[in-house]
Design a protein that fits this description.
The protein is α+β, with helices and mostly antiparallel strands and 131 residues long. It has three helices and six strands. The chain has a single domain, classed as Alpha-Beta Plaits, CATH 3.30.70. The longest helix is centred in the N-terminal third of the chain and has 18 residues. It holds the Pfam family HIRAN.
């Protein structure tokens, strides 16, 4: 095979792909795995409804986080709700970054990590926060 024949074959190969209109099919983007921001105790547990429902709370339950920017004690306050009951807050030392993410509409989620009914009230219920 001489150089001219070789080039013809190469170009024919590329042309065949181009003429056939073959394109790689776009795959839908996979949903990324959640990234944990940490496991933390629910603060202020003794002051809210946690005791009323703690027999129904179990690991894996979804919790709802609600920003409270008008909270007079902490402008970064994030309340934790389970089954429609407020059970406390994300601890103050953890909430600045999480509050900023929530304020920027990030999809921040919380799940009950564990419940220890033998622990003092501030360490009875722990949540895992993730984005």
């Amino acid at each position: 095979m001489n150089r001219l024949e070789f080039l013809k074959q190469i170009l024919a190969g590329f042309g065949g792909f181009w003429l056939a209109g073959k394109r790689a099919e776009a795959k839908p983007a996979e949903k990324p795995e959640p990234v944990s921001l940490g496991i933390m105790p629910v603060a202020g547990y003794r002051y809210y409804d946690g005791k009323k429902i703690e027999n129904r709370i179990k690991p894996g339950d979804k919790a709802r986080l609600k920003r409270e920017p008008e909270n007079k004690y902490d402008r970064d306050a994030i309340a934790v709700y389970i089954m429609g009951h407020k059970i406390g807050y994300i601890p103050r030392r953890h909430n600045p970054v999480i509050a900023l993410m929530m304020d920027q509409q990030a999809n921040v989620n919380a799940t009950i990590a564990y419940v220890n009914k033998e622990e003092e009230e501030e360490g009875r219920v722990w949540v895992e926060v993730s984005v």
